[in-house]
Amino acid sequence: MAISREERNDGKSVVIHVNGQFDFSVVQEFRDAYKDCQGKDIEVDFRGTEYIDSAGLGMLLNMQTFLNKKEGDIRLTNTMPQIKRVLVIARFEKKFIIE
């Protein structure tokens, strides 16, 4: 399973873990991970991600729109250098908190 979800103990935040490749092959799995997260703090953990493409970038933007989150409300954490490079090239640091 490339996408997994972890509810934090406080009940107000969710961590979505992305493993392997973050591309079109995981669109539905990723949507399912956040579909009921309205009003919760969202963190997307890229610790196990080796690859991201334009479909992955689009999925992040779609999630932001679906959850009606403002710029900076969603955290992208544990980004490996190759993933962070793609996010910075796409100027995602203006839309998300990248750690």
What is this structure's SSE topology?
Elements lengths: L2 E5 L5 E10 L4 H8 L6 E12 L1 H13 L7 E4 L3 H9 L7 E2 L1
Parallel strand pairs: 2-3, 3-4, 4-5
Antiparallel strand pairs: 1-2
Question: Which terms summarize this structure?
Answer:
99 residues, alpha/beta, 5-stranded mixed beta sheet, 3 helices, 5 strands, 33% strand, globular
Low-pLDDT sequence parts: none
List SSEs in N-to-C order.
EEHEHEHE
Number of strands: 5
Assembly state here?
single chain
The average pLDDT score comes to 95
* Helix-strand makeup class: alpha/beta
Percent range for β-strand residues: 25-35%
Number of helices: 3
Helix content: 25-40%
Strand line-up in the sheet with most strands: 1-2-3-4-5
Molecular shape: globular
Distance N terminus to C terminus? 24 Å
Radius of gyration: 12 Å
Instruction: Summarize the biggest pleated sheet.
Output: 5 strands, mixed
Note down, in words, how this protein is organized.
By secondary structure, the protein is α/β, with parallel strands linked by helices. The protein has a 5-stranded mixed β-sheet with strand order 1-2-3-4-5. It contains 3 helices and 5 strands; from the N terminus they run E-E-H-E-H-E-H-E.
Summarize the structure.
The chain has 99 residues and is of the alpha/beta class. The chain contains 3 helices and 5 strands. This is STAS domain-containing protein.
